[in-house]
Amino acid sequence: MMVSSTRDRSCAWVGLDHFVTTLEVNEMKAAVCYENNQPVRVEDVDQEGPRAAEVRVRMVASGVCHSDLSVVTGVLPLQLPCVLGHEGAGIIEEVGEGVTNVKKGDHVVLSWVTPCGACFFCQIGRQNLCEFGAQLNLTCKMPDGTTRLHKDGKDLHAFSALGTMAETAVVPANAAVKVPEDTPLEKAVLVGCAVMTGVGAVFNTAQVTPGSRVAVFGTGGVGLNVIQGAAIAGAEQVIAVDMNLRKLEFAKEFGATHTVDASKDDPTPQIREITGGLGVDFAFEAIGRKESIQQAYASCRKAGTCVVIGVAPFTESVKLNAFLLPMLEKRLVGCWYGSANPHFDIPRLISLYRAGKLKLDELVTKTYKLDEVNQAFSDMTEGKNARGVILF
To answer: Domains in the chain, ordered, with CATH?
Structure first.
């Protein structure tokens, strides 16, 4: 249960002419990472109410994503302590001054890239690369450079300025995308990250065509959505590659026509064999390892496209043969958040789900309470789930 108290705080919103002089502070439970490679702590924290251009969302569900675990392990070097969670869905509980895109009671899916709509990249239709959203992801603070989360008088960061592994989240209003009220938020939550990233990589980044041959390296939450995106796009062959046999079984459920066990040998020769020696038209790497990126690139045919989705450690580099680059005309491209426009693509994906064409129910293998977040991370690491979801 939330306990409300009120504190007087004076604060300015950068770029706006008005000031907020009194903010209500709620006490609520959140999953906080204090140290790398240590268990996440679920505890009561203080949360200020929304300021101008912000909303408070009562969370219904938060997905358990490998990126959250990467904060814990230090692969993503964010400032700590940090409230985890960036894949979330809930109901608008309170709106700050000037908010017009949503209202109290609206059901929303959150986008972990908050598009400003005004920067160069938003203007050219690349909202996923928004400079404003990138800054929020880097600092894990609100647009005015402050945080709404505190513990014992000290500031807490919020992953992607969201912090969805909490009972409520105060987020930038542009991060909240309204969905129909009858949308099951405990399933639609996955559209906010895993589904958007995977299906978006197929639809937006690669633009897979009917009859294509596709290979997907890594069949976790994102990889499974690449697979089902390729199936929806009409790919003739969808080859799933992983070292975990259970994950390969999941892949079949989402549209994989072939599976390759990469635990023993380089999967590239098997992919070549499946495709009659030619290679695939599109290869997707959804792991974040230089070895699998190189294998994915090698599995492409001449003039094929290799899409890198997985985030590797900053120190990793990929080796390519410079002589063959012009000769083979292959394309090696990155994919950030499915090359998506969240305010267009989230409703589009929800529509595909409601039409029975996009699998969301099947993605949720197991649900957890917030107190079970460490178990959820453990199950994800062991490959037990297609996707785990924390329910509030």
So the answer is: 3-184+360-391 (3.90.180.10), 198-335 (3.40.50.720)
